[in-house]
């Protein structure tokens, strides 16, 4: 009996020693660039991983790489990520995930995607009910029906809404298709102006003068990385500007936001990462689709006043007003 107890004690000690010396899992985070919204996605992911029991430095370590919004640098970033043989890659933005599908050659490394509008159209997953053999994640599919309903409350009588998009981006193509469908249902006309160079943004915004009642910005990389430029141009032509991404530093320049939470997107991606790390196959995991609670409605009184508008009487006590 004593020998049995000694054996069990030794086995327990060996197990504890092995656990104590277990190396933390490496989680690689790869992003298209450093931007407050994309940083929120990564921060939301890490915060949720901590909530799920993955203690940074003990259970997991993170390695962050980005391409500085330069497409030519994406292959290099992915090579560096793959060379470190991470347990999992959290890839942020559509373009980077598309490149990862082609560029990560070690298919034993699972990829979780975030900040992707439509992973099916982008070719990242085969359909909304399944991931690919090595990739699954959380989408940022917009709810333009709610967005336009919000605009109609803030700007009563609104008939035409302008937006900017990059015709070379799959994300943008999906956004334009969806916002036009929602607009037709809402009785609103969308005036979509293409832009493939940030230097052209002021001129493109200027083209909305006298043509639309407001501007609503979709989740377009080329636009979201230059919202201050768009805001200045919109103020010059006295058009209220609304965004699908919340930017606290611009809350006095924009009229409002119907914004999906990038932080929550990161949290939902972490939930999927947890399932994969516990052995579930990416192909068996459906893409997370945003729910109403994943969006925020915000109105800026100062932003409205900057273009000569006032808050409608019906919204004077609205919880949407930015204090």
UniProtKB/TrEMBL annotation:
It comes from the Bacteria. Residues 1-22 form the signal peptide. InterPro entries: ABC_transpt-TYRBP-like (IPR007487), Peripla_BP_I (IPR028082). Keywords: Signal. It holds the Pfam family ABC_sub_bind. The keyword Signal applies. SUPFAM superfamilies: Periplasmic binding protein-like I. CDD domains: PBP1_ABC_unchar_transporter. This is ABC transporter substrate binding protein. It comes from Devosia equisanguinis.
């Amino acid at each position: 009996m004593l020998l049995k107890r000694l054996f069990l004690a030794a086995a327990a000690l060996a197990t504890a020693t092995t656990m104590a010396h277990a190396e933390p899992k490496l989680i690689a985070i790869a992003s298209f660039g450093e931007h407050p919204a994309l940083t929120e996605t990564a921060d939301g992911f890490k915060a949720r991983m901590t909530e799920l029991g993955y203690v940074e430095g003990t259970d997991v370590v993170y390695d962050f790489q980005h391409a500085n919004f330069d497409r030519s640098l994406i292959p290099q970033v992915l090579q560096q990520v793959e060379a470190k043989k991470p347990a999992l890659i959290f890839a942020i933005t559509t373009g980077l995930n598309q490149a990862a599908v082609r560029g990560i050659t070690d298919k034993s490394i699972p990829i979780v995607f975030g900040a992707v509008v439509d992973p099916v159209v982008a070719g990242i997953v085969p359909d909304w009910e399944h991931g690919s053999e090595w990739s699954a994640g959380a989408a940022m599919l917009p709810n333009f029906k709610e967005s336009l309903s919000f605009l109609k409350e803030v700007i009563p009588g609104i008939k035409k809404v302008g937006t900017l998009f990059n015709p070379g981006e799959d994300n943008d193509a999906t956004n334009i298709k969806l916002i036009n469908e929602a607009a037709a249902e809402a009785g609103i006309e969308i005036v979509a102006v293409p832009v493939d160079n940030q230097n052209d943004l002021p001129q493109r915004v200027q083209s909305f003068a006298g043509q639309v009642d407001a501007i609503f910005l979709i989740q377009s990389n080329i636009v979201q990385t230059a919202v201050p430029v768009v805001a200045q141009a919109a103020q010059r032509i006295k058009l209220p500007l609304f965004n699908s991404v919340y930017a606290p530093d611009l809350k006095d320049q924009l009229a409002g936001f119907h914004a999906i939470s990038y932080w929550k997107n990161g949290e939902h991606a972490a939930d999927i990462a947890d399932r994969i790390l516990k052995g579930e196959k990416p192909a068996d995991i459906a893409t997370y689709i945003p729910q109403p609670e994943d969006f925020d409605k915000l109105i800026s009184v100062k932003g409205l006043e900057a273009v000569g508008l006032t808050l409608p009487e019906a919204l004077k006590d609205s919880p949407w007003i930015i204090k």
